[in-house]
Amino acid sequence: WNKSLTGILLTVCFLIPAHANLLQSHNGIRDAVKQFVIQQQVPLNNLQVTLTSLNKQLRLPKCKKVLQVSMAPGTKLLGHTSLTVSCASPKQWKIHVAAHIDGQVNALIARYPIPRGTVIQNSDLEFVLRRYSQLNYGYYGSANLLANMVAKRNIKAGQILTPGLVKAKKLVLRGQHITIVAQSGGLNLRVKGKALMDGQQGQTIKVKNLNSKKLIYARVISSGVVKVDF
């Protein structure tokens, strides 16, 4: 070894960390994205944010301001998504990153076997923690969403309740004698009627006013009751 060679090696050793300190760390970008997702109050426990498109060879000037993260309106913040990360100072830059956002959710499962055609009751249900990425067919996070629902097919004990397993219960049946509620301002009238169609919660169906014999359309509001607004 000679003195000149030793001097060169020492210079290189000091230059490498100095240069690295001038670059934006990838961990900093990941942390900024994760903090942004947390601020959006994503309904996930044990949140995991993985940047799937951040190239290891990417070199960006270190940002001395807080990194700004944004996303296009309407972009979902669960599963696979994309975001924009930008820096304002000292040098402006902007990158688009693909991310996978995952975590655990409280999902409803059947506590007991539920036969086809059975009305779903709260006592039939219980919550379990499941990874969002494993719920490809959807899930229910609230028992209220299953009110007036019936099983479309046999549901096994422990099975996740999904939209494909349930359907809305018919609150009005064709040919059934019903109550027609008519509201106009503060006036509230109730007359007898007959359903000419089956109807689910919130559905508009054709009914017959048994007093006037007129055919009208009304919205199903509860079991055996429809409403007409004037």
Could you walk me through the main structural features you see in this protein, from its secondary elements to its overall organization?
This protein has helices at 3-20, 26-39; strands at residues 45-51, 68-70, 79-87, 93-110, 125-131, 149-151, 166-168, 170-172, 177-184, 187-195, 199-200, 204-209, 215-222, 225-229. With 230 residues, the protein is mainly β. Strands 1, 2, 3, 4 and 5 form a 5-stranded antiparallel β-sheet that branches. The protein has a 5-stranded mixed barrel with strand order 9-10-12-13-14. A two-stranded antiparallel ribbon has the order 6-7. The termini are far apart.
Layout of helices and strands, plus pairs?
Layout: H1 3-20, H2 26-39, E1 45-51, E2 68-70, E3 79-87, E4 93-110, E5 125-131, E6 149-151, E7 166-168, E8 170-172, E9 177-184, E10 187-195, E11 199-200, E12 204-209, E13 215-222, E14 225-229
Parallel strand pairs: 9-14
Antiparallel strand pairs: 1-4, 2-3, 3-4, 4-5, 6-7, 8-11, 9-10, 10-12, 12-13, 13-14
Features:
elongated; mainly beta; five-stranded mixed β-barrel; disordered N terminus; five-stranded antiparallel sheet; 230 residues
Sum up the overall morphology in one term. Answer: elongated
Distance between the termini: 99 Å
Strand count, sense and barrel status of the largest sheet are: 5 strands, antiparallel
How much beta, percentage-wise?
35-45%
Number-wise, the strands total: 14
Radius of gyration: 30 Å
Give the proportion of residues in helices.
10-25%
Number of distinct helices:
2
Round the mean pLDDT to the nearest integer and report it.
Answer: 87
Low-confidence stretches: 1-18
Structural class: mainly beta
Could you give the order of the helices and strands? HHEEEEEEEEEEEEEE
